[in-house]
Amino acid sequence: MIVLRTIAALICGSLFGLGLSISGMLDPDRVRGFLNVTGAWDPSLIFVLAGGVIVATIGYRLLRLPRPLLDRRFDLPTKTAIDAPLLLGSAVFGIGWGIAGFCPGPAIASLTIGIAPAFLFVVTMLVGMIAHDHLIPRLFPTEPMKRARP
User: Does a structural domain hold residue 119?
Assistant: First the structure.
C-alpha cells in the first residue's frame, strides 16, 4: 500500500506541477500582476483558481465513499474555529505571496526550471517551518502540535 501511495503522490504532484507550468503560475510576475488590482492587473490566476475549486469540489463529493482508495480513513481537519493564529498565519502567507510572487507549491515546482528566487524562497520557507515547529510549542504550550502521519 505504501508503494501505491507513493506512486499516487508522485503522479498527483507531477500533474500539479505540470498544470502550474502550463498555466504560467510559476512566473512570480504573473502572480504579482494578479495581486496588482490598481495597476496592470492580470486576471489569469482567477481561471487557475476556478479550476482548483472545481477539482476540490469533485474531491469533496467523493468523500461519500466509505474510505479513500489508498488509506484507511479520510484525514479531515478537526479544528474549525477562525481564531488569531489562523488570521495571523493567513496574513503572513498573503504578504509573503504578494512580495515574493510564490506560494509553496509553485515555488517547489519552480525549482525544476531553475528560477533562482524560488530557491531562496524555498530555503527561507523551510527555515520558517522549522522555526515554527520549535517556537510555537514553547510559546503556546497548551495547544499541542499535531503531526501528520508518515
Answer: yes
Q: Give a yes or no: residue 147 inside a domain.
A: no
The four Cα atoms 132, 102, 47, 74 give a dihedral, to 10 degrees, of -30
Residues 139 and 136: their CA atoms lie apart, in Å, by 5
Query: What is the distance between the alpha carbons of residues 95 and 93, in angstroms, rounded to a whole number?
Result: 6
Residue pair 93/24 in contact (Cβ under 8 Å)? The answer is no
- Assigned domain for 148 exists: no
DSSP 112-125: TTT-HHHHHHHHHH
* CB within 8 Å of 113: residues ≥ 6 apart: 21, 26
Cell digits of residue 62: 467523493
Interhelix angle 104-111/2-23, rounded to 10 degrees, is: 90
Residue 144 lies in a domain: no
Give per-residue pLDDT as tens, 90-139.
Answer: 998 888 888 888 888 889 988 988 888 899 999 999 998 998 888 877 77
Q: What is the pTM of this model?
A: 0.70
Domain that holds residue 94: 2-139
Grid coordinates in use for 57?
469540489
